[in-house]
Design a protein that fits this description.
19 strands, about 20% strand, four-stranded mixed β-sheet, binds flavin-adenine dinucleotide, five-stranded antiparallel β-sheet, globular, alpha+beta, about 475 residues
Length: about 475
């Protein structure tokens, strides 16, 4: 086993003392993850400044059997980016930020892994283009991180998830070799798609150091509204009609329980109530219009929805400030839960048609497991992805809901199975769901995954225990 002192000396030689953190009291921003569930300190944190140094670190780690946890913005929600063992090192990509190429003719940019999503959006904007990935953590999460988790967000309906936005990656493999797959080609059928192996691998197959990303035409106008619907079944019908009437103009379609807005008002997260009238459920819908397209597409669609009796009221955003306020309200759906009570969370998906059945059955199952539990199901309805959260019953002592977590998880995942859904729609597996994956994934698929892992990382030093539990 390599001692901490030997590690420190070897890594200092590679990256210099200024790019190493070895004092536990300086590690907080790398080890405290958003859900505060994991707290094992690594032996060291290393922050290389160039790809060559990432290669040197991996060559050294490979030779010395040291496990490496790649880390981006540390916003992951399943503990993939933090240590499971105190002998590991965390390798942060945050200093790899070069913009290698911006090519508006091909609609592609090539940026290094530590570029944040917000910075990638700005690079595209400077070329009058759009990098459409949009998520609450965009100011902090990095290109390497969103690709490694295949992150989704609020524009998947129109543009796809991170995988769909990526044309190629560059990655350092477990032995330190460099895979250069920074393609700018929309057509390239030359064998296995290695990019798609690395995207979504959560740092278990390679360390992404750069990526070529698609850019899109920039919308000239956004039309945004908060709709009142009676129940999720109406939401499915609204989605069908919105798509039929607007074609590909609809870029976001989020379902929100009214409780989330009540809680934001209660906890001072919202300046004013954005709702018109009252209703148990809402849809936040957004259309993107481009040069030459007439404004008013959303208003026309709303009229048709009223006529069909599918919505009872709506708030249309009349300004950019209104739109900003509406999306802030959407982002605060996580924070208002934290302020209200402890909870139990799930990130699941089912075919869109089955969302009403999912919600009805999950609510009943959770109520049976914990009488009085408060349902808080919201999210990317257009993609079939629901963040199925539950809040502790009013008056339950702090912490007690955790003792019911397994019973609630079991009930929810059984229903998800029954509806041919997924136990992780967009947050990934990390360490949190690795044991669950063993139960739920098709055994042949699991064997293929282990075979790929063993082929690319035979010593098992890249993010061990994440996604795949260690097999003896
Ligand atoms: P990290 O958290 O640092 O790492 C995540 C995983 O990727 C880890 O397994 C890590 O080892 C690996 N990794 C990181 N960088 C690399 C690299 N360069 N090479 C190889 N492996 C690497 N997710 C969604 O999909 N949709 C949402 O709408 C969404 N909203 C969010 C809102 C908030 C407020 C927060 C806190 C999180 C949200 N997430 C969402 C979670 C989401 O997974 C992350 O925000 C993002 O994808 C992770 O990026 P990161 O750079 O922070 O990666």
């Amino acid at each position: 086993m390599t001692t901490s002192n030997t590690m420190l000396a070897a890594l200092t030689e590679i990256v210099g003392a200024q790019n190493i953190i070895s004092e536990p009291n300086q590690m907080a921003s790398y080890v405290e993850e958003p859900r505060r569930l994991y707290n094992i300190l690594p032996s060291l944190i290393v922050t290389p400044t160039c790809v060559e140094d990432v290669q040197k670190i991996m060559r050294w780690a490979h030779a010395n059997n040291v496990s490496v946890v790649p880390q981006g913005g540390n916003t992951g929600l399943v503990g993939g980016q933090v240590s499971m063992d105190s002998q590991e090192i965390i390798l942060s990509l945050k200093k790899l930020k070069a913009v290698r190429d911006v090519d508006p003719a091909t609609n592609v940019m090539i940026v290094e892994a530590g570029t944040t999503v917000l910075e990638a959006q700005e690079i595209a904007e400077n070329e009058n283009r759009l990098f459409p990935l949009s998520l609450g953590s965009e100011g902090s999460c990095q290109i390497g991180g969103i690709l490694s988790t295949n992150a989704g967000g609020t524009a998947v309906l129109a543009y796809g998830n991170s995988r769909d936005l990526c044309m190629g990656v560059e990655a350092v493999l477990a032995d330190g070799s460099l895979y250069n797959g920074l393609s700018k080609l929309r057509k390239d059928n030359t064998g296995y798609d290695l990019k798609d192996l690395l995207v979504g691998a959560e740092g278990t197959l390679g360390i992404i150091t750069a990526a070529s990303l698609k850019m899109f035409p920039r919308p000239t106008t956004f039309e945004t509204a908060l709709l009142n619907i009676e129940d999720p079944a109406a939401g499915v019908k609204v989605l069908e009609m919105v798509r039929r009437k607007s074609g590909n103009k609809v870029t976001s379609f989020e379902i929100l329980p009214t409780l989330g807005i009540d809680l934001q008002l209660k906890h001072g997260l919202a300046e004013r109530d954005p709702r018109s009238g009252s209703s148990p459920w809402h849809i936040l819908v957004e259309f993107s219009l481009f040069d030459g397209e007439d404004a008013g597409a959303l208003t026309d669609t709303l009229e048709a929805l009223f006529e069909e009796g599918l919505i009872s009221d709506a708030t249309l955003c009349n300004s950019l400030a209104d739109r900003k306020m509406m999306w802030l309200m959407r982002e605060n759906f996580a924070e208002c839960q934290t302020r209200e009570a402890d909870g139990i969370k799930h990130d699941i998906s089912v075919p869109v048609r089955d969302i009403p059945e999912l919600i009805e059955r999950c609510d009943k199952a959770a109520e049976k497991a914990v009488p009085g539990i408060r349902t808080f199901a919201f999210g990317h309805m257009g993609d079939g992805n629901i963040h199925y959260d539950f809040l502790a019953p009013i008056g339950m002592p702090k912490g007690e809901i955790r003792t019911h977590a397994n019973a609630v998880h079991e009930a929810i995942y059984e229903i998800v199975d029954d509806l041919n859904g997924s136990i992780s729609a967009e947050h990934g597996i990390g360490q949190m769901k690795a044991p669950l994956l063993q139960q739920k994934k098709d055994p042949v698929a699991l064997n293929m995954m282990y075979a790929i892992k063993n082929a690319l990382d035979p010593k098992g030093i890249l993010n061990p225990g994440k996604v795949l539990v260690k097999r003896n």
